[in-house]
Amino acid sequence: MTYTETSSSPTPTAALDAKAPAPVTPDSTQGKSTRTWLAASVAAATATLEACGGGGEESAAAASSFSTTPAISAQASISAAGKAAIASNTLAGGSAGPLALPHTWEVPANDAEAARFLLQAQFSASDAEIAAVKDMGYAGWLAAQFNVPASTTAWDWLEQRGYGVLDSNNFHFTPYQTDFAVWYQLIKSPDGVRKRVALALSEIFSVSTNGVDYFWLSHIMASWWDTLSAGALGNFRTLLENVTLHPAMGMYLNSRGSQKESTAGRQPDENFARELMQLMTIGLVKLNANGTPVVSGGVPVETYTQNDVINLARVFTGYNFDTTGNVPTPFNGLQVPSKDFTRRPMSLSASLHSTLEVNFLGTKIPAGTSGEAARKIALDTLFNHPNVGPFIARQLIQRLVNSNPSDAFVARVASTFNNNGKGVRGDIAATVACLLLDSESRGPSGTTSTAYGKLREPMIRMVQWARSFGLNSACGSWKIFDQSLSTQLGQSPLRSPSIFNFFRPGYTPPGTSIAAAGKVAPEFQIVNESTVSAYINYMMNVVRNGFYINAPDLPQITSNAKNGFDIAATYAQELPLAADAAALVARLNLVLAAGQLSKATVTLIVNALNATPVTAASNDAVKLNRIAAGVLMVMSSSEYLVQK
């Protein structure tokens, strides 16, 4: 995907006019702080990248130890382990059976192809993971990952770390512990594919910590994340049920506490009913099987009317927290409930539920139908709507692979959603497998086409960095806070500004070649002058130093807690390469950019690093300075920022 500027408004671009920067020399950085040295190196590299249009289209294979040219024939065979994983894989609890291989490239021809696949399927591409994909094949590795047990829940993690106690720390009110738990899971959990899909789902079912306010908020949101994670490789109908009844959704979209109509004029709250249709299942307009709008008289046909919303809202009345057996604890003048309700589905009070007839989307729910039965009919109606397959397929493709999938690609993925090959509808794991294994994802054109790719989201960049370079917490604090401020990363999981996520699937940056081509670039909705500079400045500090944590940490570990950069990357595999700038950049190119940096970009970064001498005899601090500078320059380059 190529971005150019066609208006006077500053727009992220890979081809800007810029003057060549002054070279960074040892003299120009001698005696300066690490931050200054990093800034000088990055400024030199970034300015030159802009001046030369990101380094052009030439392959960087010559600067690396691996080839970036896909081999379409004569590939290696899938190993016995890969074949066994494919044959025994049981997606969605046994519904899908063996994975199909709807593409030509069963085994990656080189490390770069394996890394590219890994960075689409999860967050990182370690040496071991690259070797496993090459050995087992794409489908074999993916099948094995689908069978990795889910990691410890975020809710249990909070409890294990003492965040469930009622004391002067006020954990029963503060939201930050959710940030700690989710960042930790994204960075350290072994089930990376599950967590990557869960993060994608969190941007479709976009409940935000910022819009939920109640006792034990962090536990409520941790439970919400656990619901998405548990359902990430399951069935969409089950997920739909679970998100509908979750306390977080109930608070965020007002279905909790919504009551039947009254003689005084009270009406059921319509918020959840509307967004359930618009954002989570069928969208605003009717879709063909390939995701294109159904048009009548030159106008897209709407999927639902306001009358559908009014009727559907009746179904979701009478729900509230399940406080069965709850014994509140007096604390600071408040009656604080126990935490059990935070991970229980909301319960139904029949006396508050509307029993009027419901007519929506051509489905009739007779008057007097019980609340549970009405909910089942309503969710079944939405789940079986023909829009759901292409609507969800396109968004999953956008989140994992490509902002602008072809109509045929959407149709293939939607077809798998509609029927996983064994007559099961809504198999999310099979749907994800289809989109990752499809020829449009694995074929060579994706790495060269200017219309292919997606902007990496800031939070995904940070998780990739953390997983790639061994981020660890020396004291076990793992206190990574909300990073959504304009002076920081600009994005955090479960911190979207509204139910409409951080960005819309159909967003197009105005005044750009993307708009002129009729394409979309959703992630660019959160890109502006402030967020671009904030990202680089923030990562400049984090990449080298890590996260600063104030002591004391938690009661259990106060003896070894201290102020300092407790959470930091180890760069264990990069330290031996630090004296050889070319070897270092080749590795960074592989694990961060899947070998997609051009030769010109690689040369530019190598030259910038060589401006400050580092030898095998240099101490680790000097070596880490070089590694951090290299990482930052790669992660600031357009060829990295756009995932292909």
TrEMBL record:
Tell me the domain of life: Bacteria
Bias regions of kind Low complexity — which residues? Answer: 1-15
Q: Could you tell me which Pfam families the record lists for this protein?
A: DUF1800
Q: Where is this region: Disordered?
A: 1-33
> What is the name of the protein in this document?
DUF1800 family protein
The record lists the lineage as: Bacteria, Pseudomonadati, Pseudomonadota, Betaproteobacteria, Burkholderiales
